[in-house]
């Protein structure tokens, strides 16, 4: 844990930020969540994680730190067709997103053909592509399964005589 704190402190200092307790803890939350496969977190997710660890950090502080991390290049902010922003660690590799319109699940993917096609389109229009963001919206397999089960139960309920 001590080594992790040292790494977090160095990362914050490298980004030009003082290594305060709330900043280090919020960075740790993102790092741990990322290791567990939950790379995208809202300010509320972070706040709830802090509360679960009995950290006395207000929601306004969470928003302020997230904005500072975004400005410093530690986090990337996304608006996935929701009323709130989600954040992920900027680990330097480009990827695109699939977003579930029902539950909000986010899956990351990399597709070389899509990347090549985007570059071809930019070139055709005389653009030198600097960056892009691609989010595809649909219904995830878990939500599709739940919906199919609900429909099946509904149909079974309608078919029974009274």
TrEMBL record:
Cofactor note: Binds 1 Mn(2+) or Fe(2+) ion per subunit. Binds 1 zinc ion per subunit.
Compartments, as annotated in UniProt: Cytoplasm
Annotated positions binding Fe cation: 94, 96, 115, 132
GO CC list: cytosol; protein-DNA complex
InterPro entries: FUR, Fur_C, WH-like_DNA-bd_sf, WH_DNA-bd_sf
Main subcellular location: cytoplasm
GO molecular function, one term: DNA-binding transcription activator activity
UniProt similarity note: Belongs to the Fur family.
Protein name per UniProt: Ferric uptake regulation protein
Source species of the chain: Mesosutterella multiformis
